[in-house]
Amino acid sequence: MQRVQFSAFGTPEEVIESVEIDTPPPPGDGEAVFDVDAFPINPADLLTIEGRYAVKPPLPATLGAECVGRVTALGQNVSHIGVGDRVINLGRENWCQSKSVPAEQLVRVPEGIDPLQLAMLKVNPPTALLMLQKYVDLAPGDWVIQNAANSSVGQCLIRFARAGGIRTINVVRRQELVAPLTSLGADAVIVDGGDIADQVRTITGGAGAKLAIDAVGGTAITRLADGLTDGGTAINYGLLSGRNCEMTSHQLVFRQISLRGFWLVPWLTGMTAEEKESLYAGLAQRIADGQLRIDIEATYPIEDIKAAVAHARREGRKGKILVTPNGPLT
Ligand SMILES: NC(=O)c1ccc[n+]([C@@H]2O[C@H](COP(=O)([O-])OP(=O)(O)OC[C@H]3O[C@@H](n4cnc5c(N)ncnc54)[C@H](OP(=O)(O)O)[C@@H]3O)[C@@H](O)[C@H]2O)c1
After folding, report:
1. pTM of the predicted structure, to 2 decimals
2. 326: which of 71, 168, 248, 319 lies 20 to 30 Å off by Cα?
């Protein structure tokens, strides 16, 4: 079977390759084997290949933060899933055709939902949801401002905020994103670069946003935080510019703005199995109800991983790049 790996940190499409390895052995006690039907290429995967992610694995390394698959075999003492079940894997290293894992890592997800959407369920939807829910008390009518608003996280955030009556100001890099994000439910869309504070004052009638959600770092978060009300909270959750967050002393001291960091990993680690099941059941239900959908630009076979990774690194994509390791999904 095929598995993606890299033997040196570097430019993703140069160092990544799909190689032939043995299929997983029959599952042992408490284990499960599943076929991987689809996985997305996320910015964190690209950072991992570049050696810039939180975890720098020993080389050669495999990777892949998330996937959707189907259980093909179970070891003894596994009762929460069955052979044939559609599952997502909460563990990593998912860029392969088949995988053996401790069964407790697998969460069953419903049939009848687009598997490509389920492949993107683990990381970005809970990231958007938890950032909206866990840092600031937001009431209907409150404003949240975010950048990289057309990213998958950004799209989820717009949808979840709209469903809860929270209003969003969305900062993007391209004018052509204004219309699609507005039809997704964005209350306002701003193209980055100008005086964000001034625009936010106009949009919010002087109130400002209570929460700023930043995926970019550098001076992008400085501009975003200028749209906050005094005492507001800025959360950084991404490293898209490759630069450290810059906040001014004026923002921190005189305007009493707080800077927080979000990482999904400790949130998931801190949850019980039941809490995780409930989180993902709720998010899967949102897909089923039509409240959650992440745009997809292209899917690739695993053999074309170099082209897939190169595509995922392009600016101005209209959606995610996914790989279907066991053939196209109908
Ligand atoms: N902390 C966590 O636990 C956590 C969890 C999930 C995701 N994330 C982070 O969330 C961010 C978005 O992930 P995603 O999967 O939603 O992304 P995605 O769907 O792959 O989209 C990438 C986005 O990044 C934007 N972008 C790329 N480089 C940029 C730059 N230098 N300045 C401004 N925008 C830039 C792109 O804008 P254009 O369309 O204009 O190119 C696009 O909106 C990433 O940084 C990812 O690592 C963090």
Report:
1. 0.97
2. 319
